[in-house]
Amino acid sequence: MVARVEPPLYCILLGPPGAGKGTQAITLSQDLGLIRLSTGDLFRENIAKQTDLGLRARAYMDRGELVPDDVTIGMVLERLRRPDCAAGAIFDGFPRTAAQARALENALAACEEGIACVLDLEVSHDVLIERLGGRWMCRGCGASYHVSYHPPTVAGKCDECGGELYQRPDDNPETVANRLRVYVEQTEPLQQFYRERNLLVVIDGEQSIEDVQQAMRVAMELARSRRLFQFNTRRAMPPIPQ
Ligand code: ADP
Ligand code: AMP
User: Fold this and answer.
1) Could you tell me if the CB of 199 is within 6 A of ligand 2?
2) What number of H helices and E strands is found in the chain?
């Protein structure tokens, strides 16, 4: 029997704070057997452990600004070198600037790899405010809940790992306003960056969590087939149908 060789699959979840990236990335990464690489979670882990990186990142996060590119890129490239990334990764919250997008593209190209798809969650401003205002997050596994839209079975406790739920300090109204501004200025231009590379798939993020999940799963399965085709034929990937 010939063993089936699958190339690594790298996908990006793009979208403003509160769009549902974390919610979807957790389920998709379990379904597809890929790690979820959330830069926000990595920074929060470093803050909890009081590492130098965490201390440096905290001031930016508290203000709702982006952590400088050199720090963020260094952290992601180090994470990607670990063996559990061999099958690929779902990036959640990275890249957020043009410099980060180029650094990721170059790092993957150096291993003859590339991004298979960028799923862009579209959610309107007012809905984002409501979602972030009611978000509760698990200290243990980073799962997201919402007081009205996605409440935990037991108040204050994570359904997945039993961890304690808390409200993020940067989910207060002033910091949220700044984070949304920063998104428009620095991250939204990445839509064009990835559209030019035929990788962008826009998904209506205002559907139910289940319907968004279904749309993302279909897009990622398509990306996986395209990646397999390219890997086996050594040809350029055909564009994603729009
Ligand atoms: P992000 O990781 O993009 O910042 P989250 O996944 O943490 O966003 O989701 C933000 C908030 O919105 C959470 O409270 C989450 O439970 C809720 N949420 C996520 N997706 C949906 C959805 N499709 N419909 C309603 N609420 C959602
Ligand atoms: P998130 O958990 O994705 O909402 O990110 C929380 C905060 O972490 C952001 O507001 C930033 O301060 C910081 N952060 C997360 N990812 C990045 C990134 N790719 N580049 C710079 N800062 C980031």
Assistant:
1) no
2) 9, 8
